[in-house]
Amino acid sequence: MEFPILLIIIIALALIFDYINGFHDAANSIATIVSTKVLTPFQAVLWAAFWNFAAFFIAAYVVGEFKIGNTIAKTVDENFITLEVIFSGLIAAIAWNLLTWWFGIPSSSSHTLIGGFIGAALMHALITDYHLIAITHPDYSFFEKAYQAFVQLFTQNVVKYKVVIPIFLFIFMAPLIGMAISIIITLIIVNICKRANPHKAERVFKKLQLVSSALFSLGHGTNDAQKVMGIIGAAMIYFHVNMMKDPLYLNIPEAERFNFFAEHYLWVPVVSFLAIALGTMSGGWKIIKTMGTRITKVTPLEGVAAETAGAITLFITEQLRIPVSTTHTVTGAIIGVGLTKRVSAVRWGITVSLLWAWILTIPISAIVAGITYLLFVLVF
């Protein structure tokens, strides 16, 4: 079977994004274990990368399915998904990820992908409407055609708001849940260990941090690698359904096509989990500094609480089939352990800056993706 060049480019870009996600986003899972000096940075990235990839076997053979793999594609009506839309969304997501990585801002790789997908789909719908109006009303001026296209755009259900709204709400809910769980875990641990020898307790919690960071890396691999796998899946399914008219896919109900794709192209989930693991091994030291030391100072005890809280939050949201940001989750958890000491232990100036980056991620990615799609159409 011969794939079109654009599909091959999309697969390559998706895996590049996955790799970038590794050193940009997966570094969150080693921030506290590095800042508490439980492991060296090199040891920590190897540890996290191993568990990132191990998450594939958990999802495929323990859970038995990739629950959130198709969620990003479901944010847009399938009638507005094309290879050009997926390509433009990926370009925007990669650009935003690299920009925030350069400035050491731990933004969400997941939400930039969602924003890119939505922005490109909206521009695709707008341009399609414009061309239809130009055919039916050739006497209209450019501005009249553009105005009518915008009006028609708002009558179409390009964006599936019942999917997007919960994702948007969890920009705020995920860190709040992580924060609440980390506060509870920290208080429980402190009360249990209040009479323990401090030096002995620290040694124990340094060992426990290996477990908690492994759990968080499992959660991160399961959560983020599936999203890239879902983007590749959307492109492959579009190819089989709309370009090849493949009866294998056409005869399957729409809701079951992604699971069929995951079995049909098993190499896609394997390389998606592998790419994020390789990205983790490449580091992300600017972001590690922000997460591990600039928000609040973290001890081994608090590192265990933060990582465990983050892992629990990721496992909960996966069961709810809501794609969340591991960055948001672990940030909330780290803030939670800081709050157990005192409110002033959290550096709120850094936290507010992070919040603005989170809020702006989706709209900026959407704008960049829309412009990318427009340029692609004009050039090609």
From TrEMBL:
Compartment(s) where it occurs, according to its Swiss-Prot or TrEMBL record: Membrane
Membrane topology: Multi-pass membrane protein
This protein's UniProt keywords: Membrane, Phosphate transport, Transmembrane, Transmembrane helix, Transport
Signal peptide segment: none
Membrane-spanning parts: 46-64, 85-103, 163-190, 228-244, 264-285, 354-379
Family: Belongs to the inorganic phosphate transporter (PiT) (TC 2.A.20) family.
PANTHER family registered for this protein in UniProt: PHOSPHATE TRANSPORTER (PTHR11101:SF80)
Protein name: Phosphate transporter
Organism: Epilithonimonas ginsengisoli
